[in-house]
């Protein structure tokens, strides 16, 4: 079983958990998962956060050695589950970035980075996102 298969199987088994399983976030804060789900129209999605050890992260740019910082999302479109794996505390820009990957799955990494910065710096991200024609994901 590959790592991806393991995490996908684990996510399917975690359906009994609360809608959002990210400890320590308050819904009204601009750095919360729930806030950015509303901005990006991702209410139908369950977003989970899973802390992992840096020793679980292997970077091929560094000779396949473990021990690297990581924030990334695994997306299951069928079940509408996004699991953000992280080796450190999630920041506002991490949340925006990973949820943009969920919302706009065809975007390049460069597009996600540009919009992460725009949304992170915006005083009114809802109006900034209003220029998009949202279709259900």
Tell me about this structure.
- The chain has 137 residues and is α+β, with helices and mostly antiparallel strands.
- The protein has one domain (3-129): Zincin-like.
- 35% of the residues lie in helices and 16% in strands.
- A 3-stranded mixed β-sheet has the order 1-5-4, sandwiched between helices. Strands 2-3 form a two-stranded antiparallel sheet.
- The two termini are 28 Å apart.
- 20% of the residues are buried.
Brief synopsis:
The chain is of the alpha+beta class and 137 residues long.
Low-confidence stretches: 11-19, 23-28
- What kind of sheet is the major sheet? 3 strands, mixed
Question: Average pLDDT, to the nearest integer?
Answer: 80
Total number of domains = 1
Q: Treating each run of at least 4 consecutive H or I residues as one helix, how many helices? A: 5
Beta-strand content estimate: 15-25%
From the alpha carbons, calculate the radius of gyration and give it in angstroms.
15 Å
* Shape estimate: globular
Decide which structural class fits the backbone: alpha+beta
**CATH architecture assignment name:** 2-Layer Sandwich
The residue fraction in helices comes out at 25-40%
CATH class, please?
Alpha Beta
CATH topology: Zincin-like
Order of helices and strands: HHEEEEEHHH
- End-to-end Cα distance, whole Å, is 28 Å
Strand order of the biggest β-sheet = 1-5-4
**E-strand count:** 5
